[in-house]
TrEMBL record:
<dbReference type="InterPro" id="IPR020613">
    <property type="entry name" value="Thiolase_CS"/>
</dbReference>
<dbReference type="InterPro" id="IPR002155">
    <property type="entry name" value="Thiolase"/>
</dbReference>
<feature type="domain" description="Thiolase N-terminal">
    <location>
        <begin position="5"/>
        <end position="256"/>
    </location>
</feature>
<keyword id="KW-0012">Acyltransferase</keyword>
<dbReference type="InterPro" id="IPR020617">
    <property type="entry name" value="Thiolase_C"/>
</dbReference>
<dbReference type="InterPro" id="IPR020616">
    <property type="entry name" value="Thiolase_N"/>
</dbReference>
<dbReference type="Pfam" id="PF00108">
    <property type="entry name" value="Thiolase_N"/>
</dbReference>
<dbReference type="InterPro" id="IPR016039">
    <property type="entry name" value="Thiolase-like"/>
</dbReference>
<feature type="domain" description="Thiolase C-terminal">
    <location>
        <begin position="266"/>
        <end position="386"/>
    </location>
</feature>
<comment type="similarity">
    <text>Belongs to the thiolase-like superfamily. Thiolase family.</text>
</comment>
<dbReference type="Pfam" id="PF02803">
    <property type="entry name" value="Thiolase_C"/>
</dbReference>
<keyword id="KW-0808">Transferase</keyword>
<protein>
    <submittedName>
        <fullName>Thiolase family protein</fullName>
    </submittedName>
</protein>
Amino acid sequence: MPEAVIVDAVRTAVGKRKGALREIHPVSLGGHVLKALAERTSLDPAVVDDVIFGCVVQAGEQSSNVARWSALAAGWPETTPGTTVDRACGSSQQAITFAVASVMAGHYDIAVAGGVESMTRVPMGSNRRNGPGKAFGPDIFARYGQEEFSQGLGAEILAERWGFSRTELDQLALDSHARAHAAAERGDFADHIAPITGLTKEGAEFTFDTDEGIRTGGTLESLGGLTTVFKEDGGVITAGNSSQISDGAAALLIMTPDKARELGCTPIARIHTAALAGADPVTMLTAPIPATEKALAKSGLSADEIGIYEVNEAFASVPAAWMREIGVEWDRVNPNGGAIALGHPLGASGARIMTDLVHNMRRTGTRYGLQTMCEAGGQANATILELID
């Protein structure tokens, strides 16, 4: 069976809600990273078998198969197909998994996988507003006794179950910002961010090439002054220790090693192992733990052999609980910051994380990296990458 390798990966800088990317249509955001990917690799888009994008809120400007329209917006040939995937926050990580599986099965020689989300222009929940009833229906209510499921309350359940204090979670958030700031100052993101024209608060155009959500100067005292969002009495989850609502896009070029040699491309990493897991949809956010365990078991690798872990910081309690159960220290998790600092543009986040991960692995010479994400409904993806010497 052929392997699947990542030749290159690129992303936009992540914009804050109503920030620098507020006036850019999500199709244009998606087209921007596709165009940049082709330019960086001298890729003829006509040879791409499929463009697979993740996007969560497929409504309004993100409806009608945003992957296909992004490819056309990039100026790619009309013969280039595209399809759009929704596995909640893991949508673009799942898009990558589908692309990898198709390449390994021999159905595709070359695929582009990624994702896009403009949470400014298409707010969360926009895709649930039509129709006469609730999103999940009476059978789900009969099974779980509720019509709505809250990730925020799930984050509070995690904190209570594993005994994390507000101070511990706030400190994790401060570390995320400090790490992201240090990485940006070192230029660690510069080699794979595709600059785009953004807008200042005043409406002036500027070259947007730095993640907008990174903050400096925060303290435990300043974070401690924020109110809890989901649970007033005894709650620990606040806007300060949760991921940021964001805009952004990312894309990765995936192909067989033979095709890479034919095109004169030098792959960065191979996809070593992929796994999925499901868990309780009420707590919702625990599935990265069994997904990681499954990926490690399938790979034959131990947790100690993974040099870099990326665990999406949907809420600080998610990586905190994951570390407690998997037995991995914080210094190997999200070394360049996570979604608390960098932002979480839902459908783009899996591809954003993998883009940062694969370039960080190459920069540091790290052989194995693993990323995992919690997803609404109590699911998670986990993917292990192996650096190519």
